[in-house]
Amino acid sequence: ENHCVTPESGRSSETLSETAETLQVDVNGHLTFPDDCIAAGGQDMLPSPEAAYCDSVGSNDSGRGGSELQFGFDSQPCSMTYEFDLHSDHCGYLIGKRGSHVNYIKEKTNALIWIRNALSPFNNEKKIVSIIASDEASINEALKLIRKRFPLAIYPDVTLERSNHVLVCPPTLKLSPPEAVEFQVVLSATVNAAHFFVQLPTHPSYHALPPFTLSMASMYTHCHAPVVTSPTVGNIVVSPVADGWFRAEIMEVFTEDDTCKLKYLDYGGYQIVPTSTLRQINFEFMQMPFQAIECYLANVTCHEELGWTEESKISFENLAQGQILSAYVAGIADDGIPCLHLYKVTGATNTFINQALVESGLAKWVSYEQ
């Protein structure tokens, strides 16, 4: 196991799990805090769990609602995250009046606290607490202060046991193109001339994507979201691109250089990124269907000696990009990806994009076996 050395003792400190499981505080019906603790003596001090006082940073929020609670966020780099579950009744006490206790934790340990909703919309009683810090020693110290706030003798349900919250790609959020009928699409990303992603402009959720994207960018740009500690194929994460943050699925994990191959779920495309840049996704951002549908161009293949060239990709994009196309599902590939016929509609004229690539010499026509 990884251990860290504390400057005071020069010895290995407890591991995170040991700290969470064994740390206890002797109390005589009251909780005690250092004199310099800004939470000491405040009206949020509790002699017993029954008298729980909840004050979420100056609001009347009890900690049970749907809002995210974030404290102490700044531009400091954070590379480690420890998460545990906490009953919503205890959240206000952890926060302290007007954020006094989480600010005290940050002052003493330089660790940041993030309290967010559980991953299930049907579990309103549980919150997820993330401790975010640059090293294990800071997380250990933060856990000690939280345990002091919630001694096991009084709060046996506050175990501080480490939990791992990941989301896999739910089939219900994946959009599928309609079959046996023409439909409208917009090209959103191109892998090559015969492999691309489209969006459905007639789907009810399509016009919610721009504000949804802005909301994600605002949250993940200004808050220290928990990092992805154990990337696994199929996990849904959030990844930074340019000035935004976008939903993505982990397709491959490369342990040799600590990178992941991602598929972007709303705009399409693939990218290999450092694992350290990925963040866990909040359940609130798992309500809207993934907007990008991965597709192949039906009945075409590349010239064997050339493969799919950059010229063919540019030609395809010139034909398809920046407009609403008419599409038809001609078949389903062995990997489950739909194969489309695409038509560029200009007034009364239709351009069959699949055939146009063949006629330009950039692809070959192939017929599917019946």
UniProtKB/TrEMBL annotation:
It comes from the Eukaryota. One of its GO terms (molecular function) is RNA binding. Residues 230-288 form the Tudor domain. InterPro entries: KH_dom, KH_dom_type_1, KH_dom_type_1_sf, SNase_OB-fold_sf, Tudor, Tudor_AKAP1, Tudor_domain_containing. It holds the Pfam family KH_1. GO terms for biological process: regulation of gene expression. PROSITE patterns: KH_TYPE_1, TUDOR. The keyword RNA-binding applies. GO terms for cellular component: mitochondrion. Keywords: RNA-binding. This is Tudor domain-containing protein. The lineage of its organism: Eukaryota, Metazoa, Ecdysozoa, Arthropoda, Chelicerata.
